[in-house]
Specification:
This is SulP family inorganic anion transporter. The protein folds into two domains: 385 residues, no CATH class; 95 residues, Transcription Regulator spoIIAA, CATH 3.30.750.24. It contains 24 helices and eight strands. The strands form three sheets. It has a four-stranded mixed beta sheet, with helices on one face. Helix 4 packs across helix 18 and helix 8 packs across helix 13.
Length: 532
């Protein structure tokens, strides 16, 4: 509750909290890292979505500044998402005009605000930990595999692609193999130098005042210039490529706005609903994942995040941007860079805006290979060996959903993979409930059986209790004890009463102790009182 109250604009107005020197020492360097990571991702996702490159940057700017200020999350970073590229591409081509597509994004934002107001964000509380851990590891592996081609100078696939099947008719595995046959040694040198800086530079405290990723970019530009005219020089495709705006008039001419005259179209409403649902799910998943890796272990308010994302999508649509979500890649880079508050995300959005207006020519000198090195390090930290060991020690009911989620996300996409992981996790949850719904005790030489029900007997316990009662031996005395139960699901009560009614046919005598005819679901305020 406290995180809900302290989040958003009201919380952000606590200037002392966010702009203390202690936090800024962490947040400013982190914002530079997120800015460098977000820049090519915004452009790559816009390109893959069939949208103007400018729209990707607008989305990143709004995601940083607007969502950053409204959100209650301290480390999450919003922007255009790879998981929406196919939906966006189909929407732009299918709705007839880009302005109609923007209307769908606007309406999606309105729907997300409604989701937040009706507290739909609480669904995030039902994502199993094993699935979230698997999602983080999967994103780490995908980052390593997807960035490897960029690291060696093969840039056929767009920045930000997370799908197994690529737009260049290859897949992640074949893309790596092709990259090995088309190595650009200039890119390899820049990558290796960048990785060495990222690993060793922070270990020297006196030098760590300068952020390692910023140094990586500077060294990358210098090396790219040094390689010019040699046999290992970098091509234009191996560099960042943002639109160059020559004047303020040209800049304002890039903005577009929704066509509200199309608001009654069914296909527009369906597209908006698709954006709202998919973007909300991805946001909630990313939020859970970021909270997992937050060193301070803060809990982000999910309903406020939906309000923030809805606000961001409305503003993005009004400026000509793409739909956005909280993005795990940028958020992970933010956490790994040492960010402490939302100031990092906000400054990263400001840096995107400033760079677009003032130094596009300088940014276009940055090699993609040095940015790939930053993402390779992020991927390594997300998919570290220690995480696999940790999940293994938790036991198979945790480890199997974890591994299944990784494999499923890798070969499909984020939402499908998480869905498959959820099914497996629920299966193990049901197995656990087979054992934990009651205590079974046999007395008097097997002639008397006492079944003591658990404190909470839910619908998930139905199968376990049904199997137990069905297998009660003939000619025994059964006592079903509900004295410890605060709640028993109506379906379970029905099974118990049906068993008592029919037990005489097997010569079984059934008695019920402290079992009511009806149990009301405990109210949240009553539960909170008990906790206090």
């Amino acid at each position: 509750m406290q995180s809900e109250q302290n989040g958003g604009i009201a919380g952000f107005l606590n200037i002392k909290k966010y702009f203390s020197s202690k936090n800024l020492k962490k947040d400013i360097p982190s914002s530079i890292v997120v800015f460098l990571v977000a820049l090519p991702l915004c452009l790559g996702i816009a390109l893959a979505s069939g949208a103007p490159l400018f729209s990707g940057l607008i989305t990143g700017i709004v995601g940083g500044i607007v969502v950053g200020m409204v959100s209650g999350s301290q480390l999450s970073v919003a922007g255009p998402a790879a998981g929406l590229t196919v939906i966006v591409l189909n929407a732009i081509t299918g709705l007839g005009s880009y302005e109609t597509f923007l209307l769908a994004v606007f309406l999606a934002g309105v729907m997300q605000i409604i989701f937040g107001l009706i507290k739909a964000g609480t669904i995030a509380n039902y994502f199993p930990s094993s699935v979230i851990e698997g999602m983080l590891a999967a994103i780490g592996i995908i980052l390593i595999m997807k960035q490897f081609p960029h690291a060696v100078g093969y840039d056929a696939d767009f920045e930000g692609d997370e799908g197994f099947t690529q737009t260049d008719q290859h897949n992640t595995l074949s893309g790596v193999m092709i990259a090995l046959s088309k190595i650009n040694y200039g890119a390899v040198i820049i990558t290796m130098v960048s990785l060495a800086i990222l690993i060793y530079w922070p270990k020297v405290k006196k030098l760590a005042v300068v952020p390692a990723p910023l140094l990586v970019v500077v060294i990358g530009i210098i090396l790219a210039l040094a390689f010019s005219g040699t046999g290992i020089d970098l091509r234009d495709k191996q560099m960042v490529n943002i639109p160059v705006v020559n004047s303020m008039g040209e800049f304002f001419g890039l903005f577009k706005s929704p066509d509200f005259s199309q608001i009654g179209r069914v296909d527009v409403l369906l597209t908006a609903a698709t954006f709202a649902i998919v973007a909300s799910l991805e946001t909630l998943l990313s939020l859970e994942a970021v909270d997992k890796i937050d060193p301070i272990k803060r809990v982000s308010p999910t309903n406020r995040e939906l309000l923030a994302q809805g606000t961001g999508n409305i503003v993005s649509a009004m400026l000509g941007g793409l739909p956005m979500t909280a993005v795990i890649v940028r958020s992970s880079a933010n956490v790994n860079a040492g960010a402490r508050t939302k100031v990092s995300a906000i400054i990263h959005g400001m840096l995107l805006l400033i760079s677009l207006l003032t130094i596009p020519m300088v940014l276009n000198m940055i090699p993609l290979s040095c940015l790939a090195a930053i993402l390779l390090m992020t991927g390594y930290k997300l998919a570290r060996i220690g995480l696999f060991k940790h999940m293994w020690h938790k036991g198979l009911p945790q480890f199997i959903p974890f591994v299944v989620t990784i494999v499923a996300i890798y070969f499909t996409d984020l939402l499908k993979g998480v869905g498959i992981g959820m099914v497996v996790a629920i299966f193990f949850l049901l197995l656990t409930n087979l054992r934990n719904s009651y205590f079974y005790h046999i007395e008097s030489n097997g002639k008397k059986i006492r079944i003591r029900l658990a404190e909470e007997v839910s619908f998930l316990n139905k199968a376990a209790i049904q199997v137990t009662l069905t297998n009660v031996p003939k000619e025994t005395e059964v006592v079903i004890d509900g004295s410890a139960s605060r709640y028993i699901d109506p379906d379970v009560l029905e099974i118990i009463h049906n068993f008592k009614h029919n037990a005489y046919t097997k010569g079984v005598i059934v008695s019920l102790e402290n079992i009511k005819d009806r149990y009301d679901v405990p109210k949240m305020k009553d539960l909170l009182k008990e906790l206090k």
